[in-house]
Write a structure and sequence with these properties.
9 strands; single chain; alpha+beta; 2 helices; four-stranded antiparallel β-sheet; five-stranded antiparallel β-sheet; about 160 residues; binds calcium ion
Length: about 160
Protein backbone atom coordinates (compact mmCIF):
# COMPACT_ATOMS: atom_id res chain seq x y z
CA UNK A 1 0.00 0.00 0.00
CA UNK A 2 1.32 3.41 -0.94
CA UNK A 3 1.32 5.92 1.88
CA UNK A 4 0.97 9.66 1.55
CA UNK A 5 4.58 9.86 2.65
CA UNK A 6 5.69 7.67 -0.27
CA UNK A 7 3.68 9.74 -2.71
CA UNK A 8 5.29 12.84 -1.27
CA UNK A 9 8.74 11.36 -1.84
CA UNK A 10 7.87 10.52 -5.45
CA UNK A 11 6.56 14.04 -6.01
CA UNK A 12 9.71 15.46 -4.44
CA UNK A 13 11.89 13.28 -6.68
CA UNK A 14 9.98 14.46 -9.75
CA UNK A 15 10.54 18.07 -8.74
CA UNK A 16 14.27 17.48 -8.49
CA UNK A 17 14.13 15.99 -11.99
CA UNK A 18 12.49 19.16 -13.31
CA UNK A 19 15.49 21.49 -13.40
CA UNK A 20 17.58 19.38 -15.80
CA UNK A 21 14.74 18.73 -18.25
CA UNK A 22 13.74 22.37 -18.00
CA UNK A 23 17.30 23.43 -18.71
CA UNK A 24 17.44 21.20 -21.81
CA UNK A 25 14.19 22.70 -23.10
CA UNK A 26 15.37 26.24 -22.54
CA UNK A 27 18.71 25.45 -24.15
CA UNK A 28 17.01 24.03 -27.24
CA UNK A 29 14.76 27.05 -27.53
CA UNK A 30 17.61 29.48 -27.39
CA UNK A 31 18.85 28.07 -30.69
CA UNK A 32 17.27 30.06 -33.47
CA UNK A 33 14.72 28.55 -35.82
CA UNK A 34 13.48 25.03 -35.97
CA UNK A 35 15.92 23.34 -33.60
CA UNK A 36 13.47 23.99 -30.77
CA UNK A 37 11.13 21.36 -32.19
CA UNK A 38 13.77 18.75 -32.97
CA UNK A 39 14.04 15.32 -31.31
CA UNK A 40 17.18 14.91 -29.24
CA UNK A 41 18.56 12.14 -31.49
CA UNK A 42 18.22 14.38 -34.52
CA UNK A 43 19.89 17.30 -32.79
CA UNK A 44 22.88 15.11 -31.90
CA UNK A 45 23.07 13.76 -35.46
CA UNK A 46 23.15 17.28 -36.91
CA UNK A 47 25.88 18.33 -34.51
CA UNK A 48 27.96 15.44 -35.88
CA UNK A 49 27.43 16.67 -39.47
CA UNK A 50 28.72 20.26 -39.30
CA UNK A 51 28.74 20.84 -43.09
CA UNK A 52 24.96 21.14 -43.16
CA UNK A 53 22.20 22.84 -41.24
CA UNK A 54 18.58 21.79 -40.80
CA UNK A 55 16.27 23.55 -43.18
CA UNK A 56 12.61 24.22 -42.57
CA UNK A 57 11.41 25.23 -46.03
CA UNK A 58 9.12 22.17 -46.22
CA UNK A 59 6.70 21.13 -43.50
CA UNK A 60 7.45 18.73 -41.88
CA UNK A 61 11.18 19.36 -41.90
CA UNK A 62 11.96 15.83 -40.72
CA UNK A 63 10.43 12.38 -41.06
CA UNK A 64 10.87 9.35 -38.87
CA UNK A 65 10.56 5.70 -39.77
CA UNK A 66 12.52 2.50 -39.82
CA UNK A 67 14.29 3.03 -43.13
CA UNK A 68 16.79 0.17 -42.76
CA UNK A 69 14.43 -2.31 -41.12
CA UNK A 70 16.48 -2.97 -37.98
CA UNK A 71 13.58 -2.12 -35.67
CA UNK A 72 15.13 1.13 -34.44
CA UNK A 73 13.61 4.48 -35.38
CA UNK A 74 15.59 6.46 -37.95
CA UNK A 75 15.23 10.10 -38.95
CA UNK A 76 15.47 11.94 -42.25
CA UNK A 77 15.88 15.69 -42.02
CA UNK A 78 15.95 18.35 -44.71
CA UNK A 79 19.31 20.04 -44.68
CA UNK A 80 21.06 22.80 -46.56
CA UNK A 81 24.76 22.67 -47.34
CA UNK A 82 26.63 25.51 -45.67
CA UNK A 83 28.96 25.77 -48.67
CA UNK A 84 27.03 24.91 -51.85
CA UNK A 85 23.61 25.91 -50.45
CA UNK A 86 22.16 22.74 -52.02
CA UNK A 87 19.20 21.13 -50.31
CA UNK A 88 19.89 17.53 -49.32
CA UNK A 89 18.50 14.95 -46.94
CA UNK A 90 20.49 13.79 -43.95
CA UNK A 91 19.57 10.30 -42.77
CA UNK A 92 20.27 9.63 -39.12
CA UNK A 93 19.93 5.94 -38.45
CA UNK A 94 19.06 4.63 -35.02
CA UNK A 95 22.33 2.69 -34.94
CA UNK A 96 24.32 5.94 -35.19
CA UNK A 97 25.12 5.78 -38.91
CA UNK A 98 24.64 8.98 -40.94
CA UNK A 99 24.18 9.28 -44.71
CA UNK A 100 23.85 12.54 -46.61
CA UNK A 101 21.68 12.02 -49.66
CA UNK A 102 21.94 14.52 -52.47
CA UNK A 103 18.35 15.28 -53.33
CA UNK A 104 18.52 17.10 -56.64
CA UNK A 105 22.18 17.11 -57.50
CA UNK A 106 21.83 20.80 -58.29
CA UNK A 107 19.96 23.78 -56.98
CA UNK A 108 17.78 23.87 -60.10
CA UNK A 109 15.58 20.85 -59.38
CA UNK A 110 14.95 20.77 -55.67
CA UNK A 111 12.25 18.74 -54.02
CA UNK A 112 9.41 20.71 -52.56
CA UNK A 113 7.39 18.06 -50.76
CA UNK A 114 7.96 14.70 -49.13
CA UNK A 115 6.14 12.18 -47.04
CA UNK A 116 6.65 8.84 -45.36
CA UNK A 117 5.64 5.68 -47.21
CA UNK A 118 5.25 3.11 -44.43
CA UNK A 119 6.23 -0.51 -44.94
CA UNK A 120 3.15 -2.57 -45.70
CA UNK A 121 1.16 0.45 -46.87
CA UNK A 122 -0.78 0.68 -50.12
CA UNK A 123 1.63 3.17 -51.66
CA UNK A 124 4.56 0.78 -51.38
CA UNK A 125 2.65 -2.30 -52.50
CA UNK A 126 3.54 -1.60 -56.14
CA UNK A 127 7.26 -1.56 -55.36
CA UNK A 128 8.21 -5.06 -54.19
CA UNK A 129 11.88 -4.10 -54.11
CA UNK A 130 11.17 -1.69 -51.24
CA UNK A 131 11.39 -3.73 -48.03
CA UNK A 132 11.20 -1.04 -45.33
CA UNK A 133 9.71 2.39 -44.68
CA UNK A 134 10.53 4.72 -47.56
CA UNK A 135 10.13 8.36 -48.50
CA UNK A 136 8.29 9.82 -51.43
CA UNK A 137 10.16 12.89 -52.60
CA UNK A 138 8.19 15.24 -54.83
CA UNK A 139 9.27 17.93 -57.23
CA UNK A 140 6.34 20.03 -58.48
CA UNK A 141 5.77 19.75 -62.25
CA UNK A 142 8.60 17.24 -62.55
CA UNK A 143 7.44 14.26 -60.53
CA UNK A 144 9.88 12.99 -58.00
CA UNK A 145 10.50 9.49 -56.78
CA UNK A 146 10.66 6.93 -54.03
CA UNK A 147 13.76 6.98 -51.87
CA UNK A 148 14.45 3.71 -50.12
CA UNK A 149 17.25 1.76 -48.49
CA UNK A 150 18.46 -1.23 -50.51
CA UNK A 151 20.48 -2.72 -47.67
CA UNK A 152 23.74 -1.11 -48.81
CA UNK A 153 22.76 2.29 -50.19
CA UNK A 154 19.76 4.42 -51.08
CA UNK A 155 17.81 3.45 -54.16
CA UNK A 156 15.67 5.79 -56.24
CA UNK A 157 12.54 4.90 -58.18
CA UNK A 158 11.62 7.83 -60.41
CA UNK A 159 7.98 8.84 -60.81
CA UNK A 160 6.45 11.08 -63.47
CA1 LIG B 1 16.23 1.68 -38.32
Amino acid sequence: MISKFSLGLVALALCFACPSSYAQTVSARTTPGIKADMPYELDVCLEDEPTVEADGRINPFYLSGDFDGDGITDFAVQVKSKTSKAYDVLFCFGNGKRILWPAGGSNDAQYDCWWLMPKGGKLLSVYPQVKHDAINVGITDEGGGVLYWTGKKFGWIPQD
